[in-house]
Amino acid sequence: MKVQENKSQGGRITAWRGQMHVMDGDSFYVLA
């Protein structure tokens, strides 16, 4: 997704998920 779209849908969560993807960011995002 583009940065502008991420901001509209909650860029902070998307950016955080990107950094935590190596850990449990992906599963947490699905549960959230």
What attributes does this structure have?
32 residues; single chain; mainly alpha
**Element string (H = helix, E = strand):** HHH
> Percent range for helical residues?
over 70%
Poorly predicted segments: none
In terms of quaternary structure, the protein is: single chain
Number of strands: 0
What summary fits the major beta sheet? none
Number of helices: 3
Radius of gyration: 9 Å
Question: Ends: how far apart?
Answer: 19 Å
Task: Name the beta content range.
Answer: under 5%
Please, how many domains? 1
Question: What is the mean predicted local confidence, pLDDT?
Answer: 62
Principal-axis shape equals: globular
Which class of secondary structure composition applies to the elements? mainly alpha
Explain what this protein looks like in three dimensions:
This protein is an all-alpha fold and 32 residues long. It has one domain (1-32). Helix content is 75%, strand content 0%. The chain contains three helices and no strands. It has helices spanning 3-9, 11-20, 25-31. Helix 2 (11-20) runs antiparallel to helix 3. The mean pLDDT is 62.
What is the strand and helix layout of this fold?
Blueprint: H1 3-9, H2 11-20, H3 25-31
Summarize the structure.
By secondary structure, this protein is mainly alpha-helical.
